[in-house]
Amino acid sequence: MTTVAICLGALTLCAAAVLGLYGHELRRMAAWLRGRDPRSNGRLTTEMPGPGFTAMARAVNGTLDAAEAERRATTAERRQFQRDLASLSHDIRTPLMGAKGYASLAADEADPERRAYYLAAAAARLDDMEGLLDSLFAYARAVDPDAEPDVRPVAVLPVLAPVLTGQFPAFEERGWEPTVRFADEAFTVEADEHALTRIFENLVSNALRYGAGAPTITQKGRTLAFANPVADPAAIDADRLFERFYRADAARSPGGAGLGLAVVASLAEAQGATVAASLVGNDLTVSVTFPAAPLP
């Protein structure tokens, strides 16, 4: 046997040995991944030298870390949602028990005037509960991933005007007169008209419920801003206003579920718009910025 043949044979044996070791290491890694407890903090290691296996282990561990972070975030979100639902359940139960109490008083009351008073109070509590449930259903619809918005060109001012008109009694009761300033009265956006109406209804209702003065609604460029003074700006965290169930304690009032602005954010996002909130002095501004109009 020649020296060359001997060398080739030795190289072949070495290559086979190395491939065998590589195969063993890959099988070990695969077995570790298959048997790993998803809740474990264990990470993949390599018993083979060289940058290739090290890079593979790092890539796998990076994927595991990302999956673990996502799992923890999902768990935290679920727990927070359960706490929020418990809080909302309490908020719904409160007006319901009040309505039952007033209804019971009315049933035992012989005086017609007092009976009418109790029945009116019961009806008011039921209206509060209806408002809470309406907000919850509106939020569920707004975040429905299967809902397809009917997006088409919509003139904004004709959608906003009837919303303000519908709230005229509430404005009149407070002695407020809203100010509307449109740089372009023909301002048109690509949007779902029903969703746009709901956005405006929630923004106006929010100004009425928590505001300390008449709102000013301003259109400039692609942005529509709703601004009004608030009684206690220190109690409001503008960065959290669009969070589900967020309510500033000092601004909390019966009938508020803390979902109105969360609905606004979800509906706006579904149509490619963005929302923002800012607090300057006593003035709270909530703005909706619509995407650029498509080219003709």
Low-confidence stretches: 250-255
Fraction in beta strands: 5-15%
Distance between the amino and carboxyl termini: 82 Å
Order of helices and strands: HHHEHHEEHEEHEE
The percent range for helix content is 55-70%
The tally of structural domains comes to 2
Number of strands: 7
Write the CATH fold name of the largest domain: Heat Shock Protein 90
Rg (C-alpha, Å): 31 Å
Which structural class matches the secondary elements?
alpha+beta
What is the molecular shape? elongated
Note the main sheet. Answer: 5 strands, mixed
Average pLDDT, all residues: 79
CATH class of the largest domain, anyone?
Alpha Beta
CATH level 4 superfamily of the largest domain: Histidine kinase-like ATPase, C-terminal domain
Would you identify the CATH architecture of the largest domain? Answer: 2-Layer Sandwich
Alpha plus pi helix count = 7
Spatial ordering of strands, largest sheet: 2-4-5-7-6
